[in-house]
Amino acid sequence: MAVGDFKSEKGVKDLDAFLAERSYVEGFVPSQADVCVFEALAKAPSAATPHALRWYNHIKSYQGAEKTKLPGKKEVPAALLKGGAAAAPAAKPAAKPAAKPAADDDDDVDLFGSDEEEDAEAAKIREERLAAYAAKKSTKPTLIAKSSIVMDVKPWDDETDMKEMETKVRSITMDGLVWGASKLVPVGYGINKLQIMCIVEDDKVSVDALSEEIQAFEDFVQSVDIAAFNKI
């Protein structure tokens, strides 16, 4: 059977007979061979060729990139080229029911699965993949925004106990606050300021609230300034 025959009424009937016991023109899944034969047809088969019509509508459902991703080579299968309808099993009389295969037949395969069954299977696979992606995403650790802050804590005068002042400052505890290194920096006239670093979680610690907490030690602290502020 030549490819051109698919455009004739006889060619469509031959294809219908070929598909009487097959879901696809080659193998058990749609392939480029189906696309090749589909494009060779002049028009959709009529209701007079139900097997060809069923196959045609199924292949037609594949569009664009989905169609190009089908496996196999885009050529008419040898079974159609060499034998055509003659290669298909002979049709049985309409009045006589088809013989039921033996229970232990290794070839007992349903080649006529409905489009609804295939769509349900595809939907199930898609849902499983979406569930797996959601589970993977939920286990991904959340990025915590943090900042590194250097604060200048100024005393009242040169008689302020700077060691005690630092102890007071470090006594402040907040969820998301970690104190770091510190040093005394001269500001003049024998007065030093306490320069102390801390790491804070932005969502948990307010810099203004922290400054107010430090200034609450009014017997030691004159003022608090932010010397450096960097996002981590």
TrEMBL record:
Domain Elongation factor 1 beta central acidic region eukaryote: 111-137
Keyword Protein biosynthesis among record annotations: yes
Domain of life: Eukaryota
Record GO terms (molecular function): guanyl-nucleotide exchange factor activity; translation elongation factor activity
Domain (Translation elongation factor EF1B beta/delta subunit guanine nucleotide exchange) ranges: 146-232
GO cellular component: cytosol; eukaryotic translation elongation factor 1 complex
Xref: InterPro entries: eEF-1beta-like_sf (IPR036219), EF-1_beta_acid_region_euk (IPR018940), EF1B_bsu/dsu (IPR049720), EF1B_bsu/dsu_GNE (IPR014038), Glutathione-S-Trfase_C_sf (IPR036282), Transl_elong_EF1B/ribsomal_bS6 (IPR014717), Transl_elong_EF1B_B/D_CS (IPR001326)
Keywords, ordered alphabetically: Elongation factor, Protein biosynthesis
Keyword Transferase among UniProt keywords: no
Pfam short name (any one): EF-1_beta_acid
Family label: Belongs to the EF-1-beta/EF-1-delta family.
Cross-referenced PANTHER family: EF-HAND AND COILED-COIL DOMAIN-CONTAINING FAMILY MEMBER, ELONGATION FACTOR 1-BETA
Function field: Catalytic subunit of the guanine nucleotide exchange factor (GEF) (eEF1B subcomplex) of the eukaryotic elongation factor 1 complex (eEF1). Stimulates the exchange of GDP for GTP on elongation factor 1A (eEF1A), probably by displacing GDP from the nucleotide binding pocket in eEF1A.
Record-given protein name: Elongation factor 1-beta
Gene source species: Thrips palmi
